[in-house]
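Methods — Computational structure assignment.
A single polypeptide chain was analysed. Its primary sequence is given first, followed by the predicted tertiary structure written as C-alpha coordinates.
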Amino acid sequence: MRVAGVRTVAWAAVVVVVGLAACAGGDGGPTTADTGELPAQGPLEEIVGWADTSRSSTDVIAAVAQREAWIAACMAREGFEHFPQVPTSDEITSLDGPAQGTREYTERYGYGVWTPATEEEGAYMFEMQDDPERVAYLQAMSPSEMEAYLTAMYGGVTETHTDGSATRSGGCMAVGYDGIGDQDAYLSGVRDAATQFLTALPEDPGFAELDARWSECMAGQGLSYASPHRARGSFLDGIEELFEKANVENVDPFSFPEVPERAAEEKRVALADLECRESLGYDRLHTLVAHELQADYVETHRTDLDALAAVLGSDGA
Protein backbone atom coordinates (compact mmCIF):
# COMPACT_ATOMS: atom_id res chain seq x y z
CA MET A 1 0.00 0.00 0.00
CA ARG A 2 1.36 3.40 -0.99
CA VAL A 3 1.00 5.89 1.85
CA ALA A 4 1.62 9.62 1.47
CA GLY A 5 0.68 10.44 5.03
CA VAL A 6 -2.43 10.51 7.15
CA ARG A 7 -5.70 11.13 5.38
CA THR A 8 -7.97 13.71 6.97
CA VAL A 9 -10.28 14.08 3.99
CA ALA A 10 -13.21 11.98 2.81
CA TRP A 11 -12.47 8.32 2.47
CA ALA A 12 -12.33 7.06 -1.08
CA ALA A 13 -15.37 5.24 -2.34
CA VAL A 14 -15.23 1.53 -1.64
CA VAL A 15 -16.79 -1.00 -3.93
CA VAL A 16 -17.66 -4.42 -2.59
CA VAL A 17 -18.33 -6.83 -5.42
CA VAL A 18 -19.77 -10.29 -5.21
CA GLY A 19 -16.85 -12.60 -5.90
CA LEU A 20 -17.37 -15.65 -8.05
CA ALA A 21 -15.57 -18.78 -6.98
CA ALA A 22 -13.88 -20.53 -9.87
CA CYS A 23 -16.58 -22.29 -11.87
CA ALA A 24 -16.80 -25.67 -10.31
CA GLY A 25 -17.76 -28.80 -12.03
CA GLY A 26 -17.45 -32.55 -12.57
CA ASP A 27 -15.25 -35.47 -13.28
CA GLY A 28 -16.58 -38.88 -14.07
CA GLY A 29 -19.00 -38.48 -11.17
CA PRO A 30 -22.25 -36.57 -11.70
CA THR A 31 -23.48 -36.66 -15.28
CA THR A 32 -26.80 -34.82 -14.97
CA ALA A 33 -27.49 -31.36 -13.63
CA ASP A 34 -30.29 -32.08 -11.15
CA THR A 35 -32.20 -29.16 -9.74
CA GLY A 36 -31.75 -27.57 -6.33
CA GLU A 37 -29.70 -24.58 -5.29
CA LEU A 38 -26.11 -25.23 -4.28
CA PRO A 39 -24.26 -23.27 -1.59
CA ALA A 40 -22.42 -20.23 -2.94
CA GLN A 41 -19.21 -21.51 -1.37
CA GLY A 42 -17.68 -24.89 -0.74
CA PRO A 43 -16.65 -25.94 2.79
CA LEU A 44 -13.03 -24.77 2.41
CA GLU A 45 -14.05 -21.50 0.76
CA GLU A 46 -16.32 -20.79 3.71
CA ILE A 47 -13.46 -21.23 6.16
CA VAL A 48 -10.90 -19.02 4.39
CA GLY A 49 -13.36 -16.46 3.00
CA TRP A 50 -12.25 -17.29 -0.55
CA ALA A 51 -14.90 -15.18 -2.28
CA ASP A 52 -17.04 -12.31 -1.09
CA THR A 53 -20.60 -13.61 -1.00
CA SER A 54 -22.31 -10.36 -0.06
CA ARG A 55 -25.87 -10.53 -1.30
CA SER A 56 -27.31 -7.43 0.34
CA SER A 57 -26.37 -4.22 2.10
CA THR A 58 -26.73 -6.15 5.37
CA ASP A 59 -23.99 -8.55 4.22
CA VAL A 60 -21.76 -5.62 3.27
CA ILE A 61 -22.24 -3.99 6.67
CA ALA A 62 -21.39 -7.26 8.43
CA ALA A 63 -18.24 -7.72 6.31
CA VAL A 64 -17.03 -4.17 6.96
CA ALA A 65 -17.80 -4.48 10.68
CA GLN A 66 -15.75 -7.68 10.88
CA ARG A 67 -12.84 -6.06 9.05
CA GLU A 68 -12.92 -3.02 11.30
CA ALA A 69 -13.06 -5.22 14.42
CA TRP A 70 -9.96 -7.10 13.28
CA ILE A 71 -8.12 -3.84 12.64
CA ALA A 72 -9.17 -2.37 15.99
CA ALA A 73 -8.05 -5.46 17.93
CA CYS A 74 -4.73 -5.50 16.09
CA MET A 75 -4.09 -1.79 16.68
CA ALA A 76 -4.97 -2.17 20.36
CA ARG A 77 -2.29 -4.84 20.67
CA GLU A 78 0.14 -2.37 19.08
CA GLY A 79 -0.81 0.31 21.61
CA PHE A 80 -2.96 2.48 19.33
CA GLU A 81 -6.62 3.35 19.08
CA HIS A 82 -8.64 2.65 15.97
CA PHE A 83 -11.89 4.38 15.12
CA PRO A 84 -14.06 1.86 13.25
CA GLN A 85 -16.26 3.20 10.50
CA VAL A 86 -19.13 1.02 9.38
CA PRO A 87 -21.70 2.29 6.87
CA THR A 88 -25.41 2.23 7.49
CA SER A 89 -27.79 0.79 4.94
CA ASP A 90 -28.73 4.33 3.89
CA GLU A 91 -25.09 5.05 3.01
CA ILE A 92 -24.74 2.05 0.68
CA THR A 93 -25.62 2.24 -2.99
CA SER A 94 -26.43 -0.97 -4.84
CA LEU A 95 -25.28 -0.84 -8.44
CA ASP A 96 -27.62 -2.08 -11.14
CA GLY A 97 -26.60 -4.15 -14.11
CA PRO A 98 -26.36 -7.75 -15.29
CA ALA A 99 -24.76 -10.30 -12.98
CA GLN A 100 -21.39 -11.68 -13.98
CA GLY A 101 -21.76 -14.90 -15.91
CA THR A 102 -25.24 -14.16 -17.28
CA ARG A 103 -25.89 -13.92 -20.99
CA GLU A 104 -26.53 -10.18 -20.83
CA TYR A 105 -23.26 -9.60 -18.99
CA THR A 106 -21.35 -11.84 -21.40
CA GLU A 107 -22.78 -10.09 -24.45
CA ARG A 108 -21.76 -6.71 -23.03
CA TYR A 109 -18.41 -7.48 -21.43
CA GLY A 110 -17.29 -11.01 -22.27
CA TYR A 111 -15.40 -12.06 -19.15
CA GLY A 112 -15.05 -8.42 -18.10
CA VAL A 113 -11.31 -8.23 -18.85
CA TRP A 114 -10.80 -6.24 -22.05
CA THR A 115 -14.21 -4.59 -21.72
CA PRO A 116 -14.51 -3.70 -18.03
CA ALA A 117 -18.01 -3.79 -16.62
CA THR A 118 -19.38 -0.34 -15.86
CA GLU A 119 -22.34 -1.75 -13.97
CA GLU A 120 -22.69 -5.10 -12.29
CA GLU A 121 -25.38 -6.67 -10.16
CA GLY A 122 -24.17 -7.41 -6.67
CA ALA A 123 -21.76 -4.47 -6.51
CA TYR A 124 -22.12 -2.03 -3.65
CA MET A 125 -20.56 1.36 -3.11
CA PHE A 126 -20.30 3.59 -0.11
CA GLU A 127 -18.30 6.66 0.84
CA MET A 128 -17.66 7.82 4.37
CA GLN A 129 -16.20 10.98 5.84
CA ASP A 130 -13.24 10.64 8.16
CA ASP A 131 -14.07 10.51 11.85
CA PRO A 132 -13.28 13.86 13.57
CA GLU A 133 -12.07 11.95 16.63
CA ARG A 134 -9.59 10.05 14.47
CA VAL A 135 -8.39 13.27 12.86
CA ALA A 136 -7.79 14.88 16.26
CA TYR A 137 -6.12 11.71 17.55
CA LEU A 138 -3.64 11.65 14.67
CA GLN A 139 -2.98 15.39 14.66
CA ALA A 140 -1.94 15.21 18.32
CA MET A 141 0.86 12.75 17.54
CA SER A 142 4.53 13.64 17.44
CA PRO A 143 6.51 12.70 14.29
CA SER A 144 7.92 9.62 16.01
CA GLU A 145 4.48 8.58 17.23
CA MET A 146 3.08 9.06 13.74
CA GLU A 147 5.78 6.86 12.23
CA ALA A 148 5.03 4.16 14.78
CA TYR A 149 1.32 4.47 14.03
CA LEU A 150 1.86 4.17 10.27
CA THR A 151 4.05 1.12 10.76
CA ALA A 152 1.46 -0.50 13.00
CA MET A 153 -1.40 0.25 10.61
CA TYR A 154 0.21 -0.21 7.19
CA GLY A 155 3.39 -2.19 7.91
CA GLY A 156 7.04 -1.39 7.36
CA VAL A 157 8.30 0.69 4.44
CA THR A 158 9.28 -1.43 1.45
CA GLU A 159 9.93 1.41 -1.00
CA THR A 160 10.22 5.19 -0.89
CA HIS A 161 9.28 7.49 -3.76
CA THR A 162 10.50 10.84 -5.02
CA ASP A 163 7.17 12.50 -4.19
CA GLY A 164 7.70 11.76 -0.50
CA SER A 165 5.26 8.87 -0.31
CA ALA A 166 6.21 5.37 0.74
CA THR A 167 5.03 1.88 -0.07
CA ARG A 168 4.30 -0.17 3.04
CA SER A 169 3.37 -3.83 3.43
CA GLY A 170 1.60 -5.71 6.21
CA GLY A 171 0.41 -4.12 9.43
CA CYS A 172 -3.06 -4.15 10.91
CA MET A 173 -4.63 -3.08 7.63
CA ALA A 174 -3.53 -6.42 6.18
CA VAL A 175 -4.99 -8.19 9.21
CA GLY A 176 -8.26 -6.43 8.39
CA TYR A 177 -8.46 -8.27 5.09
CA ASP A 178 -7.76 -11.78 6.31
CA GLY A 179 -7.99 -11.70 10.10
CA ILE A 180 -4.49 -13.11 10.61
CA GLY A 181 -1.47 -11.27 11.92
CA ASP A 182 1.81 -11.54 10.04
CA GLN A 183 3.43 -12.75 13.25
CA ASP A 184 1.32 -15.91 13.30
CA ALA A 185 3.40 -18.10 11.00
CA TYR A 186 1.36 -21.21 11.78
CA LEU A 187 -2.04 -19.79 10.84
CA SER A 188 -0.59 -17.90 7.88
CA GLY A 189 0.81 -21.19 6.63
CA VAL A 190 -2.55 -22.93 7.06
CA ARG A 191 -4.32 -20.16 5.19
CA ASP A 192 -1.71 -20.00 2.42
CA ALA A 193 -1.85 -23.77 1.88
CA ALA A 194 -5.65 -23.63 1.66
CA THR A 195 -5.66 -20.74 -0.81
CA GLN A 196 -3.01 -22.48 -2.93
CA PHE A 197 -5.25 -25.54 -3.03
CA LEU A 198 -8.23 -23.43 -4.13
CA THR A 199 -6.18 -21.58 -6.73
CA ALA A 200 -5.04 -24.86 -8.26
CA LEU A 201 -8.45 -26.54 -7.95
CA PRO A 202 -9.66 -25.84 -11.53
CA GLU A 203 -6.73 -27.93 -12.82
CA ASP A 204 -7.62 -30.95 -10.67
CA PRO A 205 -7.83 -34.22 -12.69
CA GLY A 206 -11.30 -34.73 -11.25
CA PHE A 207 -12.62 -32.27 -13.83
CA ALA A 208 -10.93 -33.93 -16.80
CA GLU A 209 -13.97 -35.74 -18.23
CA LEU A 210 -16.30 -32.76 -17.94
CA ASP A 211 -13.67 -30.39 -19.35
CA ALA A 212 -13.13 -32.78 -22.27
CA ARG A 213 -16.85 -32.67 -23.12
CA TRP A 214 -16.80 -28.87 -22.87
CA SER A 215 -13.66 -28.69 -25.04
CA GLU A 216 -15.34 -30.84 -27.68
CA CYS A 217 -18.32 -28.48 -27.69
CA MET A 218 -15.99 -25.49 -28.14
CA ALA A 219 -14.18 -27.23 -30.98
CA GLY A 220 -17.51 -27.40 -32.79
CA GLN A 221 -17.44 -23.60 -32.81
CA GLY A 222 -13.89 -23.47 -34.12
CA LEU A 223 -12.26 -22.76 -30.74
CA SER A 224 -9.51 -24.73 -29.04
CA TYR A 225 -9.41 -24.49 -25.23
CA ALA A 226 -8.89 -27.16 -22.60
CA SER A 227 -11.35 -25.77 -20.03
CA PRO A 228 -13.42 -22.70 -19.17
CA HIS A 229 -10.73 -21.79 -16.63
CA ARG A 230 -8.08 -21.81 -19.36
CA ALA A 231 -10.33 -19.86 -21.73
CA ARG A 232 -10.90 -17.08 -19.20
CA GLY A 233 -7.27 -17.06 -18.17
CA SER A 234 -6.06 -16.64 -21.74
CA PHE A 235 -7.52 -13.13 -21.82
CA LEU A 236 -5.50 -12.08 -18.79
CA ASP A 237 -2.39 -12.34 -20.95
CA GLY A 238 -1.17 -8.84 -21.69
CA ILE A 239 -3.64 -7.00 -19.47
CA GLU A 240 -1.10 -6.27 -16.71
CA GLU A 241 1.38 -4.92 -19.26
CA LEU A 242 -1.40 -2.78 -20.71
CA PHE A 243 -2.05 -1.14 -17.35
CA GLU A 244 1.65 -0.63 -16.69
CA LYS A 245 2.04 1.07 -20.08
CA ALA A 246 -1.02 3.24 -19.43
CA ASN A 247 0.35 4.23 -16.05
CA VAL A 248 3.65 5.33 -17.57
CA GLU A 249 1.91 7.31 -20.32
CA ASN A 250 -0.84 8.54 -17.98
CA VAL A 251 -3.63 7.50 -20.34
CA ASP A 252 -6.75 5.32 -20.25
CA PRO A 253 -5.51 1.71 -20.60
CA PHE A 254 -8.44 0.88 -22.83
CA SER A 255 -7.56 3.62 -25.32
CA PHE A 256 -4.76 1.62 -26.92
CA PRO A 257 -5.41 0.38 -30.50
CA GLU A 258 -5.03 -3.32 -29.67
CA VAL A 259 -7.93 -3.27 -27.18
CA PRO A 260 -10.95 -3.46 -29.56
CA GLU A 261 -9.67 -6.60 -31.29
CA ARG A 262 -8.92 -8.36 -28.01
CA ALA A 263 -12.28 -7.27 -26.57
CA ALA A 264 -14.17 -8.61 -29.59
CA GLU A 265 -12.37 -11.95 -29.42
CA GLU A 266 -13.01 -12.14 -25.68
CA LYS A 267 -16.75 -11.69 -26.19
CA ARG A 268 -16.79 -14.32 -28.95
CA VAL A 269 -15.02 -16.88 -26.78
CA ALA A 270 -17.02 -16.02 -23.66
CA LEU A 271 -20.33 -16.44 -25.47
CA ALA A 272 -19.26 -19.79 -26.93
CA ASP A 273 -18.06 -20.82 -23.47
CA LEU A 274 -21.41 -19.84 -21.96
CA GLU A 275 -23.37 -21.78 -24.57
CA CYS A 276 -21.28 -24.91 -24.07
CA ARG A 277 -21.51 -24.72 -20.29
CA GLU A 278 -25.27 -24.26 -20.47
CA SER A 279 -25.72 -27.18 -22.86
CA LEU A 280 -23.70 -29.49 -20.59
CA GLY A 281 -25.00 -28.24 -17.25
CA TYR A 282 -21.30 -27.62 -16.65
CA ASP A 283 -21.42 -25.09 -13.81
CA ARG A 284 -23.53 -27.22 -11.51
CA LEU A 285 -21.59 -30.40 -12.21
CA HIS A 286 -18.29 -28.61 -11.69
CA THR A 287 -19.52 -27.10 -8.42
CA LEU A 288 -20.64 -30.48 -7.07
CA VAL A 289 -17.23 -32.03 -7.62
CA ALA A 290 -15.34 -28.94 -6.43
CA HIS A 291 -17.27 -29.02 -3.17
CA GLU A 292 -16.46 -32.73 -2.77
CA LEU A 293 -12.77 -32.06 -3.31
CA GLN A 294 -12.88 -29.22 -0.80
CA ALA A 295 -14.64 -31.44 1.73
CA ASP A 296 -11.85 -34.03 1.35
CA TYR A 297 -9.25 -31.31 1.94
CA VAL A 298 -11.07 -30.03 5.02
CA GLU A 299 -11.30 -33.53 6.49
CA THR A 300 -7.60 -34.18 5.86
CA HIS A 301 -6.55 -30.88 7.47
CA ARG A 302 -9.31 -30.69 10.08
CA THR A 303 -7.17 -29.74 13.10
CA ASP A 304 -5.34 -26.93 11.31
CA LEU A 305 -8.49 -25.55 9.71
CA ASP A 306 -10.39 -25.65 12.98
CA ALA A 307 -7.66 -23.47 14.51
CA LEU A 308 -7.88 -21.07 11.56
CA ALA A 309 -11.69 -20.92 11.71
CA ALA A 310 -11.56 -20.16 15.43
CA VAL A 311 -9.42 -17.07 14.79
CA LEU A 312 -11.38 -15.90 11.76
CA GLY A 313 -14.56 -16.13 13.81
CA SER A 314 -13.11 -13.85 16.49
CA ASP A 315 -11.35 -10.48 16.45
CA GLY A 316 -8.39 -11.89 14.58
CA ALA A 317 -4.93 -13.06 15.49
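Note: The beta strands are 2-3, 14-17, 92-94, 123-126, 156-160, 166-169.
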